Amino acid sequence: MAMTAKQAKAVAERYAKAVELVEAGKVFPLYGEPDRYVVVNGQGQAYLVDHISGECTCPDSQLRCPKLGIVCKHAMAVELYVERQQATAGERPPQPQAEPEPEAEPARLHRIEVDLMEEEQARRLLEYLF
Ligand SMILES: [Zn+2]
């Protein structure tokens, strides 16, 4: 899987632009479509990128990239964006890992508290009425 000089140059050009797109906040996740992203270019035009296939709706992706055997800058931007999102997620303490173990006990206590409160209210109501 050697890369030709032509491919390397084509990737380098697109990579620099992809970094700019990510830095400028031009990559957006598409609601309800976990693997699809919208990338907005400098002219305000939006392209739809499939993160799995690397396909993009831009002309570069349709015409030049298939011949070169590379992906467009938008697909690269999405790749960088996802990578950064994952890196950011990794920095946070691993809270989702903390499994709820003695869940039953607090839940039961809470239930007792509610019952006591209701009992107390009922008692006060009875006192008030009689
Ligand atoms: Zn594209």
From TrEMBL:
Keyword field: Metal-binding, Zinc, Zinc-finger
Region feature (Disordered): 85-109
GO molecular function: zinc ion binding
Pfam family, one: SWIM
Domain SWIM-type: 47-83
PROSITE patterns xrefs: ZF_SWIM
InterPro entries, sorted: Znf_SWIM
Record-given protein name: SWIM zinc finger family protein
